[in-house]
Design goal:
Elements (H helix, E strand, L loop, with lengths): L1 E2 L2 E3 L11 E2 L1 E5 L5 E2 L6 E7 L3 E7 L22 E6 L2 E6 L3 E7 L2 E3 L14 E4 L8 E5 L8 E4 L17 E6 L1 E7 L3 E7 L2 E3 L14 E7 L24 E2 L3 E3 L3 E5 L6
Parallel strand pairs: 5-19
Antiparallel strand pairs: 1-22, 2-21, 3-20, 4-22, 6-7, 6-8, 8-11, 9-10, 9-12, 13-14, 13-15, 15-18, 16-17, 16-19
Keywords: Repeat
Family: Belongs to the beta/gamma-crystallin family.
InterPro entries: Beta/Gamma-Crystallin, Beta/gamma_crystallin, G_crystallin-like
């Protein structure tokens, strides 16, 4: 559940009849950003909290658990990572397949911080295209047939521009975009670079549902980073009983609440 500024006197006000809340964390506001796109550099750690063996990379990695050269460490898993420069895409499976996760410059102490469905992160790819003047055209028919809707800024719901819930083709005119399966920049995400996508398989999706999208913006030095409203996170972390929440007030930023074991 996404909670924007305002008051929620009952659980029904945030969209559920169950008052149980297992975790709560602030959501990052604003478009994704990159400060040093030409200086890709990331450090991958085997364990959460930047512990265990590490591997510093500056190029695409087809399989983090089976490096192509003998000098690189063999990591049994990816528990955390630091993105020191550039904008990256992390993939659930080797060979840049499976769930996609946009990785901005910043720290990711565990898989929940990169929005993972689970702890699996097996390949990494650097985004090397130009981030300037983002523009994208969405088509409801395959092969760019019929009417197209051009978008040049963050769009929390494609229906705001009279575009239906089904997107069959996409033409990224410029910049880098992240498309989401749910409204409000949530759900499964797909990273789109300049070029043409004739069907949903081209952007790695199993169906044509896209409900929101936003560009990745290049920012000046000192203005990037993964800022969170208010700072701090309350999270279930280790197994614990549900908290019974009768109501709450969101004073700053947007927050995501989740039932235990579920997503925001």
């Amino acid at each position: 559940y996404i909670l924007e500024p305002g008051e929620y006197p009952t659980s029904e006000a945030w969209g559920t009849s169950d008052p149980s809340v297992g975790s709560l964390k602030p959501m990052r506001l604003g478009c994704p950003s990159v400060e040093k796109p030409g200086e890709p550099r990331a450090v991958v750690y085997e364990a959460p909290g930047f512990q265990g063996r590490s591997w510093e990379v500056s190029r695409d990695i087809y399989n983090l658990q089976q490096p192509e050269d003998s000098q690189s460490p063999h990591l049994a898993s990816v528990g955390s990572l630091r993105v020191l420069g550039g904008c990256w895409v992390g993939y659930e499976k080797e060979g840049f397949r499976g769930h996609q996760y946009l990785l901005e410059e910043g720290e990711y102490p565990d898989w929940s911080h990169w929005g993972g469905y689970d702890e699996l992160l097996t390949s990494l790819r650097v985004i090397r295209t130009d981030f300037g003047d983002p523009a994208v055209v969405l088509f409801e028919a395959m092969d760019f047939e019929g009417h197209g809707v051009e978008v040049s800024k963050a769009l929390p719901d494609v229906e705001l521009v009279q575009h239906g819930p089904s997107t069959q083709a996409i033409h990224v005119l410029s910049g880098v975009w992240v498309a989401y399966q749910e409204v409000g920049f949530s759900g499964e995400q797909y990273v789109l670079e300049k070029g043409v996508y004739r069907n949903c398989e081209d952007w790695g999706a199993g169906n044509s549902t896209l409900a929101s999208l936003q560009p990745v913006l290049q920012v000046r030095a000192g203005r990037g980073g993964r800022g969170l409203p208010g700072g701090g996170t309350w999270s279930s972390g280790a197994p614990r009983p549900h908290a019974e929440v009768a109501g709450w007030r969101t004073c700053l930023g947007a927050w995501g609440g989740a039932l235990e074991g579920g997503g925001a």
